[in-house]
Design a protein that fits this description.
alpha/beta, 3 helices, Leucine-rich repeat, LRR (right-handed beta-alpha superhelix), nine-stranded parallel beta sheet, 238 residues, single chain
Length: 238
């Protein structure tokens, strides 16, 4: 990409606060963006070949939305934790294996999309994200969901297409969780904690494509209570 094209992008971004440069074969985060740290609210660099984010990403203190889907990121710098205004972080289709602990400092974060990465352990330390509405961890390599999941404030957790065979009953204690997606995992019927059905806020439990037939959920204790919540939610949006 020519310098003049980048220059005109930068000039526009200075006015709009938005920098979008997708599918241009970029191999690194554009250094020139440092000039706009005070202005930028939205950055979208999806569909490039970026392998790492610089520590200077922490300087973009006004950033509300950062999208780097379909790049080649393997890790995130700890400086990400400085982005206190960030509300949306989309990193699907990368090669990320783990998250820096500082991600728990993103107090304004509402949407965290990490689908299609190389994450093999359920990320801990996200319970401090009090505004988090949506956590997407689909298409990773997660094997189990630990008790610490109960700290999460998310309204929806998407764990479709992992390798999950174990699910902690503590997930029923997530205070705001309404939608739990577990399609195409390795769950047996007896791996579904009854508490999700009888004692949680979950009104949509999606479990197609596991090691049991969905209709057999009816056999589990608490199923009727779950169906009451499911039906009530359906009526509300009908």
């Amino acid at each position: 990409m020519g310098n003049s094209a980048l220059k005109s992008h930068l000039e526009t971004s200075q006015k709009t606060g938005v920098f979008q440069l997708t599918a241009k074969g970029l191999q690194e985060f554009p250094e020139e963006l440092q000039r706009l740290t005070a202005n930028l609210r939205t950055v979208d660099l999806s569909g490039n070949k970026i392998e790492a984010l610089p520590a200077s990403i922490g300087n973009f203190l006004q950033l509300k939305s950062l999208t780097l889907n379909s790049n080649r990121l393997t890790a995130l710098p700890s400086e990400m934790g400085k982005l206190k205004k960030l509300e949306t972080l989309c990193l699907s289709g990368n090669r990320i294996e783990r998250l820096p602990p500082t991600l728990g400092q993103l107090k304004a974060l509402r949407t965290l999309n990490l689908s299609g990465n190389q994450i093999s352990e359920f990320p801990l330390g996200l319970g401090t994200l009090r505004q988090l509405d949506m956590l997407d961890l689909s298409r990773n390599h997660i094997h189990s969901v630990p008790p610490e999941v109960s700290d999460l404030q998310a309204i929806e957790i998407n764990l479709n297409q992992n390798q999950i065979s174990g699910l902690s009953p503590e997930i029923s204690r997530c205070p705001r969780l309404k939608v739990l997606r577990l399609e195409e995992n390795c769950l047996e019927l007896n791996s579904i904690p009854h508490a999700i059905l009888s004692d949680s806020q979950v009104s949509l439990l999606s479990v197609e494509g596991n090691l049991f037939e969905v209709k057999n959920l009816r056999e589990l204790e608490g199923y009727e209570k779950y169906m009451e919540r499911f039906t009530a939610t359906k009526k509300k949006f009908a």
